[in-house]
Amino acid sequence: MTALVMLLMVASLGIWPEPAAAQAAGDSLTVAQAVALARQANPMLRATRFKADAAAERIPQAGAWPDPQLSLALNNRMVGNLGATDDPMTMNEVQVTQMVPWPGKLGLGKERARRLANAEQLDAAEAERMLIARVKSIYYQLAYIDRAVVTMASTRELLRHFLEVSSAMYAVGTGLQQDVLQAQVAIARMTEDITVMQQERVAMGARLNALLGRAATEPIGGLELPEPSRELPNVDSLMRAAVEHRPALRAAAERLGAATAAYRGARRELYPDLMVSLGYGARPQFDNMATLMVGFSVPLWAGSRQLPMRREMRAMESMAQADLLNLNNETFAEIAERLAEAQRSRRLSDLYANAVLPQARAAVDASLAAYRVGRVNYMTLVDNQMTVNRYEIERVKLAAQYHGAVAEIEALVGAGVGGEQ
User: Fold this and answer.
1) pTM here?
2) pLDDT above 70 for 4
3) 278-289, pLDDT tens digit by residue?
4) Domains of the chain with CATH codes
């Protein structure tokens, strides 16, 4: 009986130990360390960076002239005597041919490649931001699971003490069998909940390790979970920051610029490209000869090639404009949703901490006093304590949801909010 009363008094004060792994400083993982590991080792992030590097190498290619053509010829040889050189038309000729694109074509092609390369670089930055948000979200969910398991394990110990007391009272004829059965069911349910949470931690830990570029079975130690105390900027400030900083929006703008350059280049496809050839013919028994030829392409099939290309690039430009507008709208909507979620989690957490939990603990104290004089049964006492524990778990869950929402806001904005990067 004394052990139960002491445990109830401790529980009513909300004094629960931290996860065992968190007590060992050398076996802990801070959120900053997790983010640094993901930035360094995440394979998908590395792939996006390599993709951006590849796109940057296309810029000089797009602005380079076509390679010249070198031709060697033995002209006007007699079939019956290939070595004869007494004919004036017989010569050994070398010729160089260079295509000269119409002015502006290469420049626009290079501009398009440059903008697309910039977009790929920004995509890599966006991928990094989204990766960080994902890492933080899973990190804080794991931190919540650790703390919830500790609280549930303490509640189960409380129920076991209750089972011992109720069983002893039933054995001497002063208790009810119903109390014993209810205690056994409550312990089984709590064990089930703990098992589910522990398995969820295993799965969540494997997902976090995958984001960190580690083996799925790599152990994850104690995790931090600060209180949701930061004031967040209003939605208008966040939206303005997103327009200025979010890499995905800037990448969409770069792709629009690339599509515009591609359309301007397509309009120039009707203009002819020049072909310049220089030749030198060596005649063994006569004076040598030089040749200069100038030609140009003729857009004879413009209706099937150049004009459809122009319409295609125009449609691509319109698509890029629509994509940019849609991404703006989606960004603003997601910022508003995540901000509402963060504010809800923070306010509910404050409500639980300052109003609900104190009242629930007061109810435990009152039921404990009533139990001492036989006015309430054990189940009423334990129900009140389990209500406290439920709100404790919910408060921890709200803290994890708050920090996850803040991480997503930072990814959408493209910058830290409230001083966090």
Assistant:
1) 0.82
2) no
3) 999 998 888 899
4) 2-413 (1.20.1600.10)
